Amino acid sequence: MKAVRFHEHGGPEVLRYEEVPEPAPTPTQVKLKVKAVALNHLDIWLRKGLPGVKVPLPKIGGCDIAGEVVAAGSACTRVKPGERIMVSPGWTCGQCAACLRGEDNLCRAYQIIGGYGVDGGCADFICVPEVNCIPIPERLDYPSAAAVPLTFLTAWNMLRRQARLKPGEDVLVMGAGSGVGTAAIQIAKLVGARAIAVASTDEKLAKATALGADAGINYASQDLGQEIRRLTGKRGVDVVFEHVGGATWEKLIPNIAPGGRLVTCGATAGYDAKVDIRYLFSKTIAILGTFMGCKADLLEVVRYMGEGKLHPVVDRTLPLAECAQAHRLIEDRDQFGKIVLLP
User: Fold this and answer.
1) Residues 6+ apart with CB under 8 A from 152
2) Domain count, the chain
3) What's the CA gap between 255 and 253, in Å, rounded?
4) Which of 246, 274, 289 is the last residue of a domain?
């Protein structure tokens, strides 16, 4: 079969579209013919390499996978050949206290399919645990289904579980044009909150408004703190949905309302954020970190997808052989929503 792998860390040029051995399922796994795989910033970090993190090479990336079941292991009872499946990206032990209490994303053995230890879906075929297989709602095609798992799961965990977003609250969505940003806008509106989108261009803000955002801030041409105060009558926002990091925290923390929350899942613009802790205790502000989410939450997201209350956002599709170009588009932030590859 064909797959995209990198044998060394570096720029997009290290990605090779090449022949690799076709996998066979274990008794508890199903084999999928990959129909679509969506990319994330994790794919960029894996390819570049991170200090202190060892990635087994050669590596196949791709965490967000949708495909057709072509074979099932002898111990599989639920999933049958011919079914359309999206893959829950979290690979867990299924036996520890965290897994058994429904917080499987806190499992000490947690890995992301397509992440540091487990090969992903940038290939013609992949084998995954049966427990990770979720039927695709009829209203979604394969590219749309691939645009769901990681981003919507993360955004749901951030806003619903961690920040406990409530109807009527103001939520500031940083990086509104990203996969998690487009998911966050929709989840905020589903809850009944007011969504304020933050992006680098007016074009992205127009798309965010069409998606449901109530207001927008162009951080490239407007002062972020000033605009937050203007849009909230100087009160500040109740929740900051954050995955950018870097210097933005200095503007964000002072503009959170009393009792507000900043919830973060990443640091695409830098991990070294400066915080004036006086704002935290004087305004009772909470800073919350999240990592992925549990399978139960993804099932709830998929139910809303089936009802048409949440919608995946696909910026464009490209052939799997053009994976390097897709990486460049993500690095240049030249997309709104997800870039999906088609084997």
Assistant:
1) 183, 187, 298, 301, 310, 312
2) 2
3) 5
4) 289
Report how far residue 25's alpha carbon sits from residue 127's, in angstroms, rounded to the nearest whole number: 6
Reported as a pLDDT band with limits 50, 70 and 90, residue 333 is: confident
Q: How many CA atoms lie within 13 A of 165 on its CB side?
A: 30
Name 176's Cβ contacts closer than 8 Å, sequence gap at least 6.
182, 184, 185, 197, 198, 199, 204, 205, 208, 213, 216
Q: What is the CA radius of gyration of the chain?
A: 20
Dihedral of CA atoms 56, 62, 68, 73 in degrees, nearest 10, equals 20
Residues present in the chain in total: 343
* DSSP-derived pairing of the beta strands 84-87 and 133-135: antiparallel
Distance of alpha carbon 157 from alpha carbon 294, whole angstroms = 8
In a domain, 297, yes or no: no
**Own/partner long-range contacts of 19-22 (Cβ < 8 Å, ≥24 apart):** 20/60, 20/123, 22/124, 22/125
For the chain, the first-to-last Cα distance in angstroms comes to: 10
Residue 218 structure tokens: 């162009």
| DSSP code string of 260-326 | EEEEE---TT-S-----HHHHHHTT-EEEE--S--HHHHHHHHHHHHTTSS---EEEEEEGGGHHHH
- Longest Cα separation, the chain: 62
Predicted structure pTM score: 0.94
Do 157 and 19 share a structural domain? no
On average, the pLDDT of the chain sits at 95
- Judge whether residue 267 has pLDDT over 80: no
Split at pLDDT 50, 70, 90, the class of 246 is confident
At residue 273, does pLDDT exceed 90? no
